[in-house]
């Protein structure tokens, strides 16, 4: 490393000294007019002293670029920071990365306020008849004169029929007391179609008869009891006891079925 610095710094410095020395008076120096080289490039017989730099290039050729020795260490002040340049163009979108691993489940949220209370869908009735009823030559609607239950007023005493307001599955039941020596013959009706029969043959003694059924109804359907025609038909009733009854209730609605 020391020899390299010597070659780069010391030798050029010697050349500079030699170049500047040619401009001064060399008549008393170690060289005469052609002391270094003659016009034909002949070397002077008188050699330079040891350690003295000399110009060894022919005087006929123009000197090369002057080499100026530089100090070994150079320092300078840092300039001011320049202004930020304009952003470059947006590059193309890279390929889609792989799906990451699912994180752990978050904490349980706070319970919300209670919702509005669901309106209960209810429909039920139970009616009774206190008077006996005899058959005629026409079909008859069995009428009732006592209301035990009538939720929503879905049963109409003036027509003797139940009117469906809530679509769903309904349960119905009917009971009668037979008349001595008379036939009992009734139908539970849905609209104008018989669904089930309530029947008892004539006999020497009267008995209680009953019938039950479940029906699927839609809004507007009518359910009622019908006595068949004929003067041999009759059912027994009394003021003190309810021998003739008709009941029904909604089992469950079918809005979403």
Structural write-up:
The protein is mainly beta and 257 residues long. The protein is 8% helix and 30% strand. The protein is built from 1 helix and 13 strands. The protein has one helix at residues 2-21, and strands at 124-129, 133-134, 140-141, 146-151, 155-156, 161-163, 168-178, 184-190, 193-200, 208-217, 222-227, 234-236, 244-253. Strands 1, 2, 4, 7, 10, 12 and 13 form a 7-stranded antiparallel β-sheet that branches. The longest helix is centred in the first third of the chain and has 20 residues, at 2-21. The protein is rod-shaped and about 155 Å long. The two termini are 99 Å apart. The model is unreliable at 1-8 and 14-45 (pLDDT under 50).
Helix-strand sequence:
HEEEEEEEEEEEEE
Which runs of at least 5 residues are low in confidence (pLDDT < 50)? 1-8, 14-45
Report on the biggest sheet: 7 strands, antiparallel
Distance between the termini: 99 Å
The number of helical segments is 1
Structural class: mainly beta
Fraction of helical residues: under 10%
Instruction: Summarize model confidence as the mean pLDDT.
Output: 79
Total strand segments: 13
- How large, in whole angstroms, is the Cα Rg? 65 Å
* Portion in beta strands: 25-35%
Shape: rod-shaped
Explain briefly what this protein structure is.
The chain has 257 residues and is mainly β.
Top keywords for this entry?
mainly beta; 7-stranded antiparallel β-sheet; 6-stranded antiparallel β-sheet; 1 helix; disordered N terminus
């Amino acid at each position: 490393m020391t020899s390299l610095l010597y070659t780069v710094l010391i030798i050029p410095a010697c050349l500079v000294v030699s170049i500047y020395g040619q401009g001064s008076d060399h008549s008393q120096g170690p060289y005469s007019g052609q002391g270094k080289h003659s016009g034909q490039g002949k070397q002077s017989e008188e050699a330079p002293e040891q350690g003295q730099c000399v110009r060894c290039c022919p005087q006929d050729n123009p000197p090369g670029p002057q080499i100026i020795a530089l100090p070994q260490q150079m320092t300078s002040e840092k300039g001011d920071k320049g202004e930020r340049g304009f952003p470059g163009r947006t590059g193309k979108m890279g390929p889609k990365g792989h799906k990451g691993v699912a994180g752990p489940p978050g904490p349980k949220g706070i319970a919300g306020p209670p919702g509005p209370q669901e309106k209960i869908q209810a429909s039920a009735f139970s009616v009774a008849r206190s008077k006996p009823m005899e058959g005629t030559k026409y079909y008859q609607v069995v009428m009732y004169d006592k209301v035990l239950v009538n939720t929503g007023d879905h049963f109409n005493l003036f027509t003797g029929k139940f009117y469906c307001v809530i679509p769903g599955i309904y349960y119905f039941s009917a009971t009668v007391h037979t008349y001595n020596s008379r036939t009992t013959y009734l139908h539970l009706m849905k609209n104008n179609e018989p669904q089930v029969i309530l029947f008892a043959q004539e006999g020497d003694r009267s008995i209680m008869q009953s019938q039950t059924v479940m029906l699927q109804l839609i809004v507007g359907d009518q359910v009622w009891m019908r006595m068949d025609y004929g003067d041999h038909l009759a059912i027994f009733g009394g003021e003190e006891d309810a021998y003739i009854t008709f009941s029904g209730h909604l089992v469950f609605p079918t809005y979403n079925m």
